[in-house]
Amino acid sequence: MVTSGEPSAASERLAVLIPCLNEGATIGNVVAEFRAALPLCDVYVFDNDSCDRSVSQARDAGAHVVQEPRRGKGHVLQSMFRTVHADVYVLVDGDGTYPAAAVQSLIEPILRGRADMVIGSRLHPAAASEFDVLNRWGNRLFVMLSRLLFRISLTDLLSGYRAFTRAVVQHVGLTSEGFQVDAEFTIKTIQARFRVIEVPVNLRRRPPGSHSKIRRCRDGLAIIRAMLTLRRLAHHRRDPE
Ligand SMILES: Nc1nc2c(ncn2[C@@H]2O[C@H](COP(=O)(O)OP(=O)(O)O)[C@@H](O)[C@H]2O)c(=O)[nH]1
Ligand SMILES: [Mg+2]
Fold first, then answer.
1. Are 208 and 202 contacting, i.e. CB atoms less than 8 angstroms apart?
2. Alpha-helical runs (H) found in the chain
3. How far apart are CA 133 and CA 166, in angstroms?
4. 96: helix, coil or strand?
5. Is 45 in a helix, a strand, or coil?
6. Does residue 213 line the site of ligand 1, with CB under 6 A?
7. Quick one: CA dihedral 204, 210, 215, 219, positive or negative?
8. Three-class secondary structure of residue 16 per DSSP
């Protein structure tokens, strides 16, 4: 159980969860960096039949590799939450864009009992992220939408880097299949009245030869649709007919 008091990573089971689709250029390093930053953690790489060296790289670096048959980051998160048991979870991309060195700043508020979810915000005023222009403005748009639709006052709705408790995993049921899962996860966690805070993280670029799996139009529309559906559901819960 995560309780308040002094940080004590030693008494908590820590799991680092990494969704991975063809991240052979980086996944080995990402696993190694998180094992070095959190020596007592278990690292789980959830793969969807990558056709590069991802699986062997992850295994060689010391990760447990789990195969998920259904494609999509949302399916992968659902499967992570069903199968991995821990007290504190860290979720991070396998593309090496999020700094492992920041992981203590994400888990410490949880170990101290001050937060249930800590989001590594790439758009925090104190962050110096290497965003390309479209991604920066796209993310700002979703932050604005979340403010309008849900009165959420965060600076990064869709970060792939966050830490959270077992209670969050047990209470927040995810249904998204694809990239809209990040929005769903943030919004449902706040709607369930868990304490969500942000810390700055500096996003780096993917290295040459490594490619984002996001398709801006398709995934952007899916995120907007998911937010509108969540808004409608919240409205029905408040004013049932
Ligand atoms: N297992 C699995 N991982 C995925 C899938 N789609 C994306 N990912 C992983 O999810 C993380 C986030 O995707 P990414 O392409 O980095 O999105 P971006 O950070 O928004 O550019 C990366 O580690 C991807 O490898 C998928 O269908 N299956
Ligand atoms: Mg990424």
1. no
2. 27-37, 54-60, 73-83, 103-111, 133-150, 166-171, 181-191, 216-238
3. 35
4. coil
5. strand
6. yes
7. negative
8. strand
pLDDT at site 9:
58
The three-class DSSP label of residue 230 is helix
For residue 19, the ligand closest to its alpha carbon is: 1
* Residue with more model confidence, 5 or 212: 212
57: tokens are 């790289």
Q: Average pLDDT in the 143-162 region?
A: 98
Mean pLDDT of 2-14: 62
- Counting ligand 1 atoms within 8 A of each CB, the residue from 29, 93, 212 with the most, and so the one to mutate, is 93
User: Both tokens of residue 132?
Assistant: 């390309």
196 lines ligand 1 (CB under 6 A): no
- Average pLDDT taken over every residue of the chain: 94
Neighbours of ion ligand 2 (CB under 5 A): 93, 95, 97
pLDDT exceeds 80 at position 241: no
The residues, any chain, with a CB within 8 Å of residue 89's CB and separated by 6 or more, are 14, 15, 16, 17, 163, 164, 165, 166, 169
**What does the pLDDT read at residue 239?**
77
Question: Is 48:15 a contact under the CB 8 Å cutoff?
Answer: no
